[in-house]
Amino acid sequence: MTSTYFATLRDVLRFATTRFNGAGLFFGHGSSNAFDEAAYLLLHTLKLPLDRLDPFLDARLLPEEVDALLKVVERRAVERVPAAYITREAWLGAYRFYVDERTIVPRSFIAELIPEQFAPWVSDPEEVTSVLELCTGSGCLAVLLADTFGNAHVDAVDLSADALEVAARNVADYQMQDRITLLRSDLYDALPDTRKYDLIVTNPPYVNAGSMAKLPPEYQREPQMALAGGDDGMDLVRRIVDGARSRLAPGGVLVVEIGNEREHAEAAFADLELTWLSTSAGDDMVFLLTAEQLGILE
Question: Which of 108, 174, 219, 220 is least surrounded, with the fewest CB atoms within 10 Å of its CB?
Fold first, then answer.
């Protein structure tokens, strides 16, 4: 395909949408359909406002601009690279984060719950002074937590040194170096034994083995250690819940995202009454446990 076929952004957008639909791409990293993904990639490549497509649709493109757009379209269609790896950015609400292949693309239903400060289970957000985020990846949830709980220091943990390098960039971008400590650790292992937390939040690897085998190519582009959760998806979740018994402060809460694994989570923790939090995807994605439920008393 040559640039002579395209005069305007509208022309390229139409082509890209058809190309993405024809290629059978999977959309799960910020966009839900071919048109939205194409619009985002094209606007980003042209360095135009991401929320203002209409004013530019019929603007004539320079030949070099068309060439640049077509290269992006073909990379997405042929290589099945997530859009975020092409643009080097991902969004959670109004927050923009740097991302590359060293970490999974930021996405979390917990991000919807943080602005609500986990009410009513966190009764006084101003009294939350210590937060632990496990499996931080790109550091996105740590930034949201520090921004929302203004009196808290956040320890953000990941086993991947590569992911922590990405997280460090995002923490610096938001000038949160004094509020967020990044730690390389296998969950709780590298944390001081005496450290207690008012809030523990995690979006860990939870994809069960059967689902891992069926992941679309876009998800296979991501670090698999950040996705795979063992046979039932609960390998790390079990360790997280068990470890929280000695890490939560009295009155604290544990918040865990488990995606589509509610059935496996309820089987794994049949002795606990999990509280399921409402998100845009329903009531099956995130559960909460209190310190009291884990046997931590005042």
Answer: 220
